[in-house]
Amino acid sequence: MRKRFKRLTNTEDKKRIISNFFSLAVLQGANFILPLITLPYLTRVLGVEYFGLLAFATATVGYFQIITDYGFNLTATREISVNRDNKAKIIEIFSSVMTIKIILTVLSFILMTILVFTFKKFSQHWEVYFLTFGLIIGQALFPVWFFQGHEKMKYMTYLNILAKSIFTIAVFIFVRNEYDYWKVPLLTSIGFIVVGVLSQIIIKKKFKVSFEFQSFDKIKYYLKDGWHIFISGIFTSFYTVSITFILGIFSNDRVVGYYSLSAKVVGVLSGIFSPLNGAIFPYISNIVKTSRDQAKSVINKILTYSTGIMIFFSTLIFIFAKPIVYILASPEYEKSIVVLRILAFLPVVLNAAIIISTNYLINFGLQSKLAKIYFFSAIFSLILSFTLVPLFFEIGSAITVMLVELFATCYMLWIVKKNIVPSEPNLETYPSFKIID
């Protein structure tokens, strides 16, 4: 009877993972197709300079996204996953995390206002930054971690596709020339805010979970739980959003436009396996409590196969960089070709880093190690950025990203090899597993 139950459970797990994978695969398909529809239009209508301005504004606001996310897309997902059958606990997690996000969003808005009206670089296009900030409001309202923790990825899929569809349709209706540049962040923000509100309605109606005020001690607990991931996100920003930000400080919007086009192309490819990683993360969170060896086996297989596929697609990007740039933009963006070739194999490295960091380091209780990795990567990034970017501009930015991401991924592999041992975890102290100091 026990074996039969185990087989049934495994079958149900597989069905749930497959369902979640296809839901996220549809989402990733939309993430791939919709930008291919709007990107060639925007690059031509806005021109390199305004396209670069919007990319710089997005990078600036990206810092505040890291603050408001606070690592909850990983830590809160794990908490929801392991407590999904405890309604009272789910309400506690949801309410505590949303409370923190609201506070951080307000704080971020105040900080951004000070930044924009203090420096001329930002104040001359102040409206772009405030309109772009709508993304932060929308993402704060949209609890991706709640749906991932329940392994109900279909809601994420429907809502994300709705947001991107609203933006795609509206762009062709309202953005007609370069002077409509401010409408792009406005339309994007509207889409995400609408979806954020709808997600809150779904949680209340479908999951019967409503917001309840929580004690200070409970809120403090979830702040502490997400601290290491938050710090990791801050350090990560030094070689993700900071690259575009630093490039914009040392150059101009046109140069940022050259780099941003190539970054968007490799960004689309980098997300190919996001559906799979998003589907297995809560699954690994559960099985690692009872069988670390099984968890390691699943992770290693996914890492091996996805890396091989990524190498194939990256090779195609390297070979066909010129026609890709001319199709997605125009000859005006010719300087993006070299940048795209430098970044061509970045998706290979990023894919490995995401799988290792989330499914190994976080699910095996090594969040503090992850923070250390990102700290040294951030230092390395700052050294390279302030050395290469002022000299080589967009090419220096591309080289910096590649070297730093490669360093961070190799560091992760070393940590995994050194710390994760085959002994079974103590369920009473989860997620503090036995590790080698």
Report what the structure shows.
The chain has 20 helices and no strands. With 437 residues, the chain is mainly alpha-helical. The model is unreliable at 1-9 and 422-437 (pLDDT under 50).
How would you briefly describe this protein structure?
With 437 residues, this protein is an all-alpha fold. The protein has 20 helices and no strands. The radius of gyration is 22 Å and the shape is globular.
Itemize the secondary structure elements and their pairings:
Layout lengths: L1 H68 L2 H11 L4 H30 L3 H4 L2 H7 L1 H8 L2 H6 L3 H22 L8 H24 L9 H10 L1 H11 L3 H10 L2 H18 L3 H14 L4 H28 L1 H8 L7 H8 L2 H17 L4 H26 L1 H26 L18
Helix pairs in contact: 1-3, 1-6, 1-8, 1-11, 1-12, 1-13, 1-14, 2-3, 2-14, 3-6, 3-10, 5-9, 6-9, 8-9, 11-19, 12-19, 13-17, 13-18, 13-20, 14-18, 15-18, 16-17, 17-20, 18-20, 19-20
Number of strands: 0
Averaged pLDDT, please? 83
Task: Give the SSE string.
Answer: HHHHHHHHHHHHHHHHHHHH
Summed up, the domain count is: 2
How much helix, percentage-wise, in residues?
A: over 70%
**How far apart are the termini?**
42 Å
Oligomer: single chain
Largest sheet: none
Spans of at least 5 consecutive residues whose pLDDT stays below 50 are 1-9, 422-437
The chain-level structural class is: mainly alpha
Q: What count of helical segments does DSSP give?
A: 20
Shape: globular
Residues in β-strands, percent:
under 5%
Radius of gyration from the CA trace? 22 Å
